[in-house]
């Protein structure tokens, strides 16, 4: 890592811990800053704060005392999940104290090149595919960011010739200053996180920050299927590399007569891709763009595409049982994600869905139920989705208690050749703490089928 002196002897407040906050505090401490951490969780129940205290870092836990900002901090490093409406963040901004997120620190000290990936859906799959393609060739690549590996920690370890493949949320991108990925990827942009950003405009603006510091020798890989994105990137200084499943884009990646193309070169055959669905085809094309820009061979790229079964909880293939294929798409916490999953299968589908009620109706799903043999529903939204399924003419509709009960019921409704798909179209918080837990419960129930 670069031994920068920017923070030596400067007072820095790390607001909120979790994994990214811990790494930010450790990095700043190593760089010679006078670090104070402030986390809402009580000290006795906060092992991360206890460990940092032992390292000689000042720790304040149990609340966010606004008077703490009277101590003359020169920087606040904010946990991405803490909203800007938080009184500590608001006060810091009023005092003209810069507020950044940990990815900005990672960029400042990274010796490795950064590939940054953002978007509403498909970020994690695309990030993982890119990382696999780079590592399968002649690169050493490291996953980082919103994918679960704190960027600062990865940047501290990555070498000069390595690549950091960094998934970036809108929350993280709101807190950058100089962050400049050599290759930026925008997988897509839909509507999300309006409770955090206040409006779709605010959400989109945060996403677009991924390329605001790029220069003419950088690259911006962008989804050409979305006319909105074509308009939004007109101010980019970087070189545009498009990808599209719908048209030939001569400067990027596309599909032509069953061939996966990059510019005028055949990379491989579409039929060799393991991942199902058009949405995953977009992810694949985005990853091909980055891999080719990084000099990876077609053989390396196709090896990954022919062996990559998906990321956990994202249209993840689980097993085949009696000629029924099971897929875990628990990460589908919104309607668009479930639409994409349903579009990805030509076979009849038995759909498991339902979850937290955010006041949404599900009529947008109706056209995508044409190929659905049965729906098995649970959670707060079960009756809402049942109404839509009824109106769509779905033959079998069953209400159950939870995802564990749904699995054997779905199997009973299925026939040989069917896909049994968990794609809830809702968050999980009405019943379980995360989509990962929900997905794990689904997988466990599938494995128990005989």
Automatic annotation (TrEMBL):
Q: In which pathway does it act?
A: Cell wall biogenesis; peptidoglycan biosynthesis
Question: Which part of the chain is the Mur ligase central domain?
Answer: 117-291
GO MF: ATP binding; UDP-N-acetylmuramoylalanine-D-glutamate ligase activity
| Major subcellular site | cytoplasm
What keywords are assigned to this protein? ATP-binding, Cell cycle, Cell division, Cell shape, Cell wall biogenesis/degradation, Cytoplasm, Ligase, Nucleotide-binding, Peptidoglycan synthesis
- Lineage, top-rank taxon, reads Bacteria
EC number(s) on file? 6.3.2.9
**GO process terms (BP):** cell division; cell wall organization; peptidoglycan biosynthetic process; regulation of cell shape
Claim: Nucleotide-binding is one of the keywords in the record: yes
Q: Which Pfam families match?
A: Mur_ligase_C, Mur_ligase_M, MurD-like_N
- Does the UniProt entry include the keyword Transport? no
Q: Which reaction(s) does its UniProt entry say it catalyses?
A: UDP-N-acetyl-alpha-D-muramoyl-L-alanine + D-glutamate + ATP = UDP-N-acetyl-alpha-D-muramoyl-L-alanyl-D-glutamate + ADP + phosphate + H(+)
In this protein, which residues make up the domain named Mur ligase C-terminal?
A: 313-426
| Subcellular localization(s) per the UniProt record | Cytoplasm
Q: Say which family it is in.
A: Belongs to the MurCDEF family.
- What does this protein's UniProt record list under function? Cell wall formation. Catalyzes the addition of glutamate to the nucleotide precursor UDP-N-acetylmuramoyl-L-alanine (UMA).
> Do you know which HAMAP family this protein is assigned to?
MurD
Q: What is this protein called?
A: UDP-N-acetylmuramoylalanine--D-glutamate ligase
